[in-house]
phosphoglucomutase (alpha-D-glucose-1,6-bisphosphate-dependent)
Amino acid sequence: MISIIDTTPYTDQKPGTSGLRKKVPVFQQENYVENFIQSIFDSVAGYRGETLVIGGDGRYFNRETIQTAIRMAAANGFGRVLVGQGGILSTPAASHLIRKNRAFGGIILSASHNPGGPDEDFGIKYNVGNGGPAPEKITEAIYARSREIDRYATIDAPDIDLDKIGTSQLGEMTVEVVDPVADYADLMEKLFDFDAIRDMFAGGFRMVFDAMHAVTGPYAVEILENRLGAQPRTARNSVPLEDFGGHHPDPNLVHARDLYELMMSENAPDFGAASDGDGDRNLIIGKGIFVTPSDSLAILAANAHLAPGYSGGLKGIARSMPTSAAADRVAEKLGIGIYETPTGWKFFGNLLDAGHATICGEESAGTGSDHVREKDGLWAVLLWLNILAVRRESVLDIVTTHWATFGRNYYSRHDYEAVETDSANTLMDELRAKLSTLPGTSIDGLTIESADDFSYQDPVDGSVSANQGIRIGFVGGSRIVFRLSGTGTSGGTIRVYIERYEPDASKHDVETQKALADLIAAAEKIAGIRKHTGRSTPSVIT
Ligand code: G16
């Protein structure tokens, strides 16, 4: 029985870099979830009788929201819902399911790498029929609708048993609870040389994968251990927990510290990797070397032809603006296009659909390809494994050879988290106001060549996204970028991205923060971070 329920709008349902992210108690307010989901349905057209994919990263409030979304999909006229068993679907697996089943779209419940639990974070993302995040045109329509919504549709029905694979009926709509792993694992098997990787493991190659008690656990166990024959317990923390065991499921050097220390120890295995809450990010660490996401993108692009899925070569590479220019040098050598987009995977969708780019990446630990329309943590891990299996060199050797060939882009990101929103905005406003006066000036011997606020025009649909981050370029190719994060849930987060290009291989083994010290000091002088935030050091350095 369909019911139309009266509701009143909330004013804060503006999707950020990746969907709507808020604290759980915010989502638990009366009709908060219902308003947002109805706003999604009201902002897209033509879904009657079509398929909707639903799943999430297993965090607290996942199951309740899935039941709400299923009922609302039935009441709004969808013909079929595909939902991952246990409510689980990694973001890349959801993207694949949407594409494979030619679904109309998908609702993915995740706050990515943010912590989970009753007082922590939750999120709702909407993905469109190409499997990728909704473009800005749609997220803006959803926000506009959420500000005037006055009713939503649902159906009176008992909960669906999410734990049992099978098909049931909800009113006119079919609900299929599906294995969340199988289709995705099959896709990986098509892209990569599983025989070569299996041989490498059989020869004693050792790896540790930290699933951080998040969604990739079941995927990693099935792919790495069951299908590729890696030793049992290669996948650690592999049971998804609603609160991620009390940790941040963020695969960086702060939150995956144990893995980092293991990889730097005498006893380190050959390869270490981790993924985040919803499985789209990756962390790659070789024995004795952390590979920055920007370098990883460049190295994967330079070696992708060694994997069967990319043996025909790449059409182009795309990277977000703050990502280092390491990939640009690879694109130049391969004679293919390089695209610089704003932060947010949604900006890669058109480039992938139009066949301009095959591989995309971001400094924020995201890499992926045209196999889905999301970044994909395990995909990056498997491409690395495929390259290692073919080259039979250590990660350290592969990285240092890459630098010797292309030069090294020293790179670091400094985050100032949970800063007062007003202070963060003032810092950016003051910076923006003086941009035109900066070129030609020098700070401690570093001469500024260019300064602007990045604006992107999508080469496929012509849409323009302005104010995407302040870029300060120095003579010689070094760069500092300032931007406010679009994914935080408390206050503002200022991100400062610092990069220096060093072509001389004899200067490639300087410690990163040391190699960037003069630029780090210049960032403080240009932006007055201490004055605005009261902080003398960043909260996180990656
Ligand atoms: C999301 C987006 C990424 C973006 C990252 C950081 O990742 O999908 O494209 O790079 O946030 O964004 P920001 O710098 O605005 O915080 P995820 O893994 O959180 O979905």
